[in-house]
Amino acid sequence: MYIIAIAWMYVVTLMAATEKTLTAGFMTFIFYGLLPCALLLWLLGVKHRRYIQQKKNLLENDVRDPDRTDTD
Hints:
Elements: H1 2-17, H2 22-64
């Protein structure tokens, strides 16, 4: 997924470089590149963060609950 974001930012950077004024280039970069890319990565990262948190909770539960075959 990161390769798509990198490629998109490359294209947007080239679009911003061809704008006539510095302000137009900056706004193009922000509104066509930075904000949509950040939103996309944040939305796709929610699922990954949720998966990591569930995995961490399962590991903590396994550590807290002793094995029933343990004689102690």
